[in-house]
Design brief:
The chain is an alpha/beta fold. It has a single domain, classed as 3-Layer(aba) Sandwich (Rossmann fold), CATH 3.40.50.1820. Helices cover about 40% and strands about 15% of the residues. The strands form 2 sheets. It has an 8-stranded mixed β-sheet with strand order 1-2-4-3-5-6-9-10, with helices on both faces. The radius of gyration is 17 Å and the shape is globular. It starts with 16 loop residues before the first strand and ends with a helix.
Length: about 290
């Protein structure tokens, strides 16, 4: 049977404002803002080797009519500063300080945190260090909350089969690995323009950074178990990067979590089924008073 192709390619809308935020250790983080400045803030946190550009559909879509949308590049990614010292990425306090700096310096009032993939680790780091009083809700999107080498429970072959080579210094090797990684991120092929844009933002990330990110040992269960804010667990049933068993684990541990399963969808539900994703995110934000 012939594959479908995910179309309606996204073009990132012009931000209404951009910011240089000083994160943990003084690292400069690039952040942008879109949408209704008077609306409930939604803060998008991208994953491993990605960029804020991955949220282009959300930032240019219907969400912008109602909500204040903020997205930033994680340290080592996109337009943010890229220190090559591995300790800049292995210290959980650095990640916590980065997220705290974006919330504080942009004056975000109890934002909804949308954490994709590696973003789940970052949210856990933040809450462990700063608590949950400053946030309104969390959408864990194909999110990882534990990374325990050497077994890497609940991390899938789409990641484990490609991330090590994507972290090698040889350019041809890591390009090949990232191309394979992108091919298995979605259940159906991306539009060629979207695919090439994703390749571009991946290649902006130094391989040393990619390797440092996956050298951590992480367990977010202590954070999940004590959360009181609403948590939406958004996960594709066909995700081979972060397995559906990771989402099942979150649902078991976190008493405020509820599932949103996407059949026939891989690791990128906000692209693979944007209308549903945006609607459910808007509903989550609307629950907050």
């Amino acid at each position: 049977m012939e594959h479908m192709v995910i179309t309606d390619k996204a073009v990132l809308a012009e931000p209404t404002a951009t910011y240089d935020v000083r994160g943990g250790g003084g690292v400069r983080l690039h952040a942008g803002e879109w949408g209704n400045r008077q609306g409930r803030p939604i803060l998008f946190i991208h994953g491993w080797s990605a960029s804020h550009v991955c949220w282009a559909r959300q930032l240019a879509g219907l969400l912008a009519e109602e909500f204040r949308l903020v997205a930033f590049d994680n340290r080592g990614h996109g337009m943010s500063e890229k220190p090559l010292d591995p300790d800049s990425y292995r210290d959980p306090q650095m990640w916590a300080d980065d997220l705290a700096a974006v919330i504080d310096q942009l004056g975000l009032d109890r934002p909804v945190l949308v954490a994709w993939s590696y973003g789940g680790f970052i949210v856990s780091d933040y809450i462990r260090a700063y608590g949950e009083d400053r946030i309104g809700a969390i959408d864990l999107v194909g999110a990882a909350v534990m990374m325990k080498p050497p077994t890497f429970d609940n991390i899938g072959p789409g990641f484990l089969g490609n991330a090590p080579e994507a972290s090698q210094p040889d350019l041809a090797t890591n390009i090949t690995a990232i191309r394979r990684f992108l091919d298995v991120c979605t259940a159906e092929p991306l539009d060629p323009d979207d695919w090439s844009a994703a390749l571009a933002w991946n290649m902006v990330v130094p391989p040393e950074v990619r390797g440092a990110l996956i050298s951590r040992e992480i367990d977010g269960d202590d954070v999940l178990a004590r959360l009181s804010v609403p948590v939406l667990v958004t996960h594709g049933r066909s995700d081979t990067i972060v397995l559906p068993s990771m989402a099942e684990h979150v649902l078991d541990v976190c008493k405020t979590a509820r599932p949103s399963w996407y059949d026939g969808v891989g690791h990128v539900p906000f692209v693979e089924d944007q209308p549903r994703f945006d609607r459910e995110l808007a509903d989550l934000a609307a629950e907050l008073v």
